Amino acid sequence: MILPGVRQLADFGFKVIATGGTADYLIAQGVNVEKVNKVAEGRPNIVDKIKDGEVAMIFNTTEGWQSLKDSQSIRVSALYGKVPYFTTAAASVATARAIAALRAHELEVRALQDY
Predict the structure, then answer these.
(1) What DSSP designation does 37 have?
(2) What angle do CA 76, 79, 84 make, to 5 degrees?
(3) Cα separation of 31 and 68, whole Å?
(4) How far apart are CA 11 and CA 22, in angstroms?
(5) How many CA atoms are closer than 13 Å to the CA of 85, on its beta-carbon side?
(6) pLDDT tens track for 91-109
């Protein structure tokens, strides 16, 4: 379930966009979501948003034939746009936790010998 990761990012001020059933689910859970078309539903759609630079990060968990088909164009757009792309609920939670950790503490770089 992507809800914990998405909710945490929304709480940080990230704008959340989602297609169809995912948007409906997140809205029902109290997350502020902009609903966007799937590729097969016409334009403007999720791939258009990625190509236009309106997407900073993608959580794409697929369920069903159409979602799998759409995910190919989403992956390609993410790759060309250099947009981070995560495909599991666990990855969405880990990503949100990593962002939270970076917000709490500045990233430090040290020589291995310092450890």
Answers:
(1) B
(2) 120
(3) 24
(4) 18
(5) 17
(6) 999 999 999 999 998 888 8
